[in-house]
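Structure ticket #2291
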Amino acid sequence: MILRALQEVIDLGVGVFGLLVVALLALLGEIGFRLGRRRGGAEPLPDNKTSSVSTLTAGMLGLMAFTLALTVSFAQDRFESRRHATLDEANTIGTAWLRTGLAGPPGKPIAALIEEYARGRLTYLVALSPDAAAEALAHTNTLQTEIWQRTLPVLEGMPPPLASALVSSVNDMFDASLVQRYAMESHVPTETMLTLLIGAMFAVGALGYQTGLAGRRHPVLALLLLFMVSGAMILIIDFNRPRTGLTRVNPAPLVWTIQGFAPPVP
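Resolution: structure written out below.
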């Protein structure tokens, strides 16, 4: 239930999620401060009385920072996987298109289908919604079947080494589409985001408790900390939204491949 609620908030956008994180952390910080102030009494406790609390708080903040950095790294790795998958797919499409020339004139219809396939893969990559992506994916899946059906009869009239090269390039092209799809749909789990949020709430609450014991507020530093933590979580969410986030994969390799196709013969 909690995971579903968190996912619904995330689906509302990074702005709403960021405001929620800041509000929750600010609330926990204030609760911690009031508890620490009550525990410390009317007079602030000396530093030697709060040293153990400071040590524990520093450890919690360090663990929170480490976990955030690690999760950002995981999310960035998924973004890099999408980039590499895009480049690899563009290369395999270009190679398959070139090798249709090994079949001579019978390979021209296959080359035309591969050109249409490349445009479909570009549409899939830049689709801004799951529905648009699913429609583009269905189209390219149909083209895969048609390309394969057109390729099989052509292989019979080709020397075995050339036929093997053509089949290998077409297979690589189809495999690259699956790798790209997996990369586009691979995200940091919502469970990880919930764990990060709870850990950040405990750490900020402990920091508020420590400042309450000391009897001194540091509003500017506290606000900066809240924005830094929420900013890191927003970055993770943005990496998790390959179609609607601010950080998207550059489709240039596929665009360049399409531009490299020879103009159609009139």
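Closing remark: The chain has two domains: 15-37+49-77+189-239, 82-187+250-259.
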